[in-house]
Amino acid sequence: MHEHPPTFDEVYAAHYADLTVQLYAYFGDRQEAQDVVQEAFCRALARWGSVARYEDPVAWVRRVAWNLAISKWRRTKTALTFLRRQRREEPQSAGPSPERVALVEALGRLPEVQRRAMVLRYLADLTVPEIAEREGVAEGTVKSWLHRARTTLAAQLQPSEQEEVRNA
Amino acid sequence: MPDQLDELFADLRAETITQVRPPGVAAAHRTVRRRRVVALSAVVATVALVAGGVQLAFGGARAPVATPSDSLSPQQRAERALAAATAKPGQTWAGVVSEPTWISPRTVETGAYRLYVACAGPGSIGLEIRADGRSLSGENVSCGDNPIAEEIPLAVTQRTSYVLVLNGTDEPAYAIKLIRNEGTLGDAPPPNEESAFNAGLAGDLLTAGGEPHLVTTETRRVIKAGTFGKGELLVSYACAGPGKIAFSIVTTPVGPGTPTQSDDLLECSDLGSVRGNVPTPLDGRSTVTITATPDTAATNHAGWAYLIL
Fold first, then answer.
1. What's the CA gap between B161 and B133, in Å, rounded?
2. CATH class for the region spanning B191-308
């Protein structure tokens, strides 16, 4: 328990963007990731008196965000989000780099558990035991997911010999 | 490749972070505030729904009113309506419904009440409950030559000014009493913020289909969701928060027919649980009543919502 619990504003400022990146890597949709993370923070805010006293308030927000990501809430919201986007013109920003597109697409082709494990490992910086605890599986299972995911990603992201020749 | 993966993920993080546009802390506060307001409004609405859903005559079951007729003089109607209502102590409002009639009890404190309504003459009167300019519920009370006052339980969870609006044809006479019960809200505590917030969350799960009704769990609810014509309804309900809520959906034919009942137990959670689009066939015009009984863990902590399409 924290002696001086962090304020909601501090946690939001420090972690909103990072959590969004993690969810973006999982969804492949930045706006949807932002919506899910914002919703998780709203739920944290509603009970901040309790959440702030947890050992790791960010872990609570992350868990809720991830749970939302795979929940009915997200599926229900998707239709609304689609409608909302029809009416909204977002400020245009520079497009993502080809490497980023390729990585997100390759992640999207992984089985969900492998994709989640990769994101938690590489973007949330969780250890294998932490992922195992979060997912409720043995550490060996997480290692296996990560190994398979790395192998698949390596095969998908490795430029083909033809492309290497062309680039040369 | 593993090293390259580290690099690729680091690039992904660095590049994406620059494009993230946080809605902001103020937006989060607005969302939470809106949910609380919506949920509290829903609590007020539930007051009226509960009132409409539980009707008891003095004998404990709804008593048949005398055969309606227009044989009584206006004076006789007034006397009989008054006689039916004044069997109970307390202030009485009485008169003739010749056009929409507004009755304004003074500001009503939170608590449990019984509203007695008696109507003498032909036809029926429509009784509408309003608060803060909004219509909360409508109720129909049958009139008769020898009226029996109908008792409508009211759970008032928010101190506000309520207005009763009466509508009727054939100029029936009415008499109304509002009596406060001992204790408060049937001994249930007022809804707490957590329950109201969770009702908002549950409602969020159903918003794609329309405007859900949000309900708190400080007590067991019996809600008359409405009267619908022949056809198939799609009933959806959701709950959020701790514990479990037992739902029961009862359809009662307005005319001859057999009531139906379906029971369900929903385990709530912080993310919310949904039972969506439960087909509810109606063989004829029927009243749909939803009863929700929270278990100990859910009581006054969880919240729920329903939507009928």
1. 10
2. mainly beta
Q: Which tokens hold the place of B68?
A: 């309606």
* Domain containing residue A151: 96-168
CB A141 within 8 A of CB A110: no
The shortest C-alpha distance from B76 to chain A (Å) reads 58
Residues in chain B, total = 309
Cα–Cα nearest to B20, from A105, A40, A34: A34
Same domain, A100 and A152: yes
A129 and A70 in a single domain? The answer is: no
What does residue B233 show for φ and ψ, rounded to 5 degrees? -95, 155
Tell me how many degrees the CA angle A8-B202-A20 measures, rounded to the nearest 5: 40
ipTM: 0.79
Chains A–B, number of C-beta pairs less than 8 Å apart: 108
Higher pLDDT, A161 or B34: B34
Domain residue ranges in chain B: 52-186, 191-308
> Which range has the top average pLDDT, B182-196, B204-218, B242-256?
B242-256
Nearest CB to B8: which of A24, A73, A103? A103
Architecture of domain B52-186: Sandwich (2.60)
**Domain end point (choices A93, A116, A132):** A93
B194 with A47: Cβ contact below 8 A: yes
> What pLDDT is attached to residue B121?
79
Q: Is the separation of the CB atoms in B49 and B223 below 8 Å? A: yes
